[in-house]
Amino acid sequence: MLLLSRFKISGHSMEPRIRHGEFVLVSSLPYLFKNPKKGDIIAFKNKAKRVLIKRISEIKGENYFVLGDNRHDSLDSRKFGRILHQEIIGKVVAKL
Amino acid sequence: MDRKTKMNFKNIFKLLPLRIAYAHCDIPCGIYDPHQAQLAAHTIVRMTQLLGEIKKEDQVKMQHDISRITQVKEKHAQIVEEELETLRNDYFKEEHFKQYSNLNKLFITTLSALSKARQTIDINIAKSVLTGTLEISEIFFKTKGFTPKRQTSYYPDGGEIVVYT
Q: With contact defined as beta carbons under 8 Å apart, do B100 and B31 qualify?
């Protein structure tokens, strides 16, 4: 994983903050020295090795409960459970 | 930071390789169909043909027609892109890409042709978008357990459509 990566968003679960088709920058740099915190929007790899974007809602040790901002229309930890620290790629640091 | 500096700043990031990140919704509707992409690809071919047929007699009318036809061509290019990306990202699974080893390349070449079709009025490029869309449609129907069948379209641009039996 590069320190900085550019992603195009596919899907509506992070609306209105991040919309389908928008571009974001994801960086692993913020998590080199600090742990992810509640409220961060993160990119992580799911079991199918696909990159997903969600917001951290709760942290218990190494486990993160993530939710989409668009709660009515989001496939997130409510369905696939908690994600592990090692699955996190980085933090969404900017919208392009 | 002024607007120009901001734009230059954003352009720097375009040098980074682009990947897709999913912000999936929770509606596993299972409704996927390549027909919409086929119709839109046919429209791109037809609009490209019409651009080539524009009469240069009346300058104002010519500019008006070019604007309208290009707008429709662009709109349908967007539909093809969205429909193909939905099939690629949401419908086709890893096992499909393994079973049809040319599928990923087919998406890449078709989407690349689509970008060129937007930028040009080259009928061969427009037709290559349609060809790629038809081939993807054939694979789609096979994965659904149907036999794809090509038949001559009745659209004014000619060409074929893929249906299933």
A: no
- How many domains would you assign to chain B? 1
Contact status of A13 with chain B (Cβ, < 8 Å) = yes
Q: Cβ separation of B18 and A23 shorter than 8 Å?
A: yes
- Domain containing residue B143: 34-164
Residue A73 above 90 pLDDT? no
Q: Can you tell me the distance from the alpha carbon of B30 to that of B32, in angstroms, rounded to the nearest whole number?
A: 6
Are B17 and A6 within 8 A, CB to CB?
yes
Residue type, A44: F
Q: Is residue B27 assigned to a domain? A: no
The answer to whether A75 contacts chain B (CB < 8 Å) is: yes
In tens, the pLDDT along A17-62 reads 999 889 999 999 999 989 999 999 999 988 767 789 999 999 998 8
